[in-house]
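User: Hey, quick favor. My workstation is busy. Could you predict this chain's structure for me?
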Amino acid sequence: MRLTWGSEPRLGAGALMATLLMMLNGLLAAAYELDPNSTSSITSIAKDIAADLVGMYHGHEPGGTPGLLPEPYYWWYTGAMMGSLIDYWAYTGDDEYVALTKQALLFQVGDHNDYMPLNQTRTEGNDDQGFWGLAVMSAAEYNFPHPEPDEPQWLALAQAVFNTQAARWDTEHCGGGLRWQIFQWNNGYDYKNSISQACFFALGARLALFTGNSSYADWAETTYDWMEKVKFIDPKSFYVYDGAHTGNSCSKIVPYQFSYNAGGFILGAAAMYNFTESQVWKDRLDNLLEGVKIFFAGPEKNIMSEVACEPVKLCNLDQQSFKAYLSRWLAVTTQWAPYTADMIMPLLRTSAVAATKVCTGGSNKRMCGLYWTKNKFEGSTSVGQQMAALEVTLSCMIQSRPAPLTQDTGGTSKGDPGGGSADIGRTTPEVDWDPITGGDKAGASILTILLAVGLVAFTVWMFLDETSNKGVVPQFQGFSSSVVAAVTTLAAGGSLAAALGFRREKDEVREKPSTIFQTTGDHSSQTSGDKQMAVERQPVPIGAVRSGTPGQHRRVSSMPLGWPHNPTMRGSAAYDPDGTHPGSGRQSRVDSERGESSSTPSSSNEANRSYIPHEIPVGTALPLFDDPNQAFDGNGKAPASVQSAEPTSNVVENNDKAVAVGGENTTVPSPEQGDTSARAEATSSAEEQARPTETPQKDKAGSPETIGVAH
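Assistant: No problem, here it is.
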């Protein structure tokens, strides 16, 4: 049938419109075409990714809180994000976000300039504080624009974080290591996790390299030795496992692997190699780089993947960011140990191309995805995914950037070796009460009198016989003494209860201070009353050795595991000798207010670091073991079965002793001076190793037995 002339334009216009819309949609959804060898290509794409990252942050806007991302992101996440923006400035020279970054870093320092703000005591762990410390360490190494003279300086902030953490080194439980949590009421206080050790280790190594003070290096050495001793770093594969509970002397290892654990130790080992130029640290670095290959998947095993959660699509918000830190830290490793570039750079370049190809999500069709190996955007958008894509993209031009600076090569940030002393050893937050004024006292007196009068009147009313012909006074003749006695008894009882409560509070506060930081070995301590000094300060010589290799001079178990059903959980799994997979006291951060079930990914809630049960079936295949029933014991052996063990809550003591570590000729306690105290391979079989299977199990009551998984 022949169309009329008038109908042809309308039909042609409709077809043309549809074609144009399809073409436009295709253009909008087109992925970035990154040339990893072109600075202009890298810079252009990084600029867009950074803009989309900052678009998720509103702390600098009117009504926002600087240094805080919106819920459900935790406080530490912003510290990690500021580290990415510092990297963006250092790599590209674009200063668009400098003011925003400085504002956030300085707003969250806390009252004592050590990143322990009072409003974060419900969520802050050693790892959380550590990420802010690593961010300001990068600011010092890159000469990021300095704060005003009357504000805390980048190096001083990093030193304060280090000092407060060195004072928490706990030799009473597991022979050393940092607990996951700082404050003793937080779930996870009985858990020692690798990321807390990694942040402390890397920060100490970088401070040693920047300042030349070998005392920081001594602490780094102590931390690494302890990780090997408790087998959190596998002596054969050099995988870095998540951690263990203190109740079993850290002998029942949670064998999950996450990329940031490995990345943190690689970063610190590279800094220690540059600082010492020793074969020992070269060997350690080489071994860790061999182990990190488990995080590269794809047909060629050269694309970064968070293999513990990506294959099963259970990565929570925290885990979605972990590849950012591995990318960042591998890149810097090539500057402190240039010989590693031949192994590292091909992996980073291939991963960067893959990461930018999946930046086709969101309303703007350029938000970055999580699954770099799939060559297409899947899932949702998040701050962590943007950070990861930004860091791996920037890493492609690391070799054309100057190396992190030191005080010998132009680093000008000012330090404070005694920083953080006000928070040394504190495991309960300060009470920030306003001073009691005269008006307060007068008001309290009036209220007390009114209460007493009311109590007497109520007593009279209760005992008054309304049917009696006697008046009020005759009825109570001889009874006044009883009323007085009753009032006196009540007042005395209240005073006694208050006194007992105050004493109990004091006892609880003091239970921790007296045992964490006792002296060991030949180092003596001094006592005054019942307070024991942490260490005697002794002069420590500076023993820095600078590497002569070229290019050396120039940088969120609340980080949860979420296994296996609920990706927001920061709990842990421990395995006992009878093959069972027991319930654990360690559970994940979760947004309890959202009311989501444990089988559904849920978000973190900054205001409530709650923990919910997480189902992991008994007798399931465990990651990274040939035999599904195997698990590590304290000797690194894999027994045929395991038995349940309830995690214990341990109360520790400290003594508020300041630990000052810093620059040249600074008195710094050495680690021996006392108790200042994951990544399946690219193959499918390796992915099966890195995650547990899901088989229902029942507890004694007939309901599914649940455990939490470690951060």
